[in-house]
Design brief:
With 128 residues, this protein is of the alpha+beta class. It is 45% helix and 21% strand. The chain has a single domain (8-127), classed as 2-Layer Sandwich (Ribosomal Protein S5, domain 2), CATH 3.30.230.10.
Length: 128
């Protein structure tokens, strides 16, 4: 149940492209941008990135938020694969926390609720 490094988007150009072109979901604490393309071969390859605004002043707080987002994604990865795999899509996903969020008040449960809401919304979008 690990998150392989090959699944993480490191290129700022690719992250910017997903944010610019992709669709956007806004939750209470989480922004999720995604762009999906048809997958020619069997299996679903999901690429993901985790970002936090520099306006979150403390590096420790930014790292904590990224750690929480990675854990939520890792826990729900099978759900993401099943949703996008059913549509035959290969998505790129960028999860982000904004600066207006009080970082000390955010828990893993808060981010997971936003992410599950995103999954429900995306499953309806792909099915319809």
């Amino acid at each position: 149940m690990t998150l392989p490094k090959s699944d993480i988007i490191k290129s700022s150009r690719e992250i910017g492209e997903v944010i610019r072109v992709g669709k956007r979901f806004t939750g209470r604490h989480l922004y999720v941008f995604y762009e999906s393309s048809p997958l020619p071969e069997a299996g679903t390859k999901i690429r993901v990135a985790f970002t936090v605004s520099k306006r979150v002043r403390s590096a420790a707080d930014r790292n904590r938020l990224k750690r929480l987002m990675r854990e939520v994604y890792r826990i729900n990865k099978e759900n993401v694969i099943s949703i996008f795999g059913a549509g035959g899509l290969s998505p790129s996903v960028v999860m982000s926390c904004g600066y207006e969020v009080r970082t000390a008040a955010i828990s893993l449960k808060d981010i997971e609720e936003d992410f599950k809401q995103f999954l429900r919304r995306i499953s309806v979008d792909i099915a319809g």
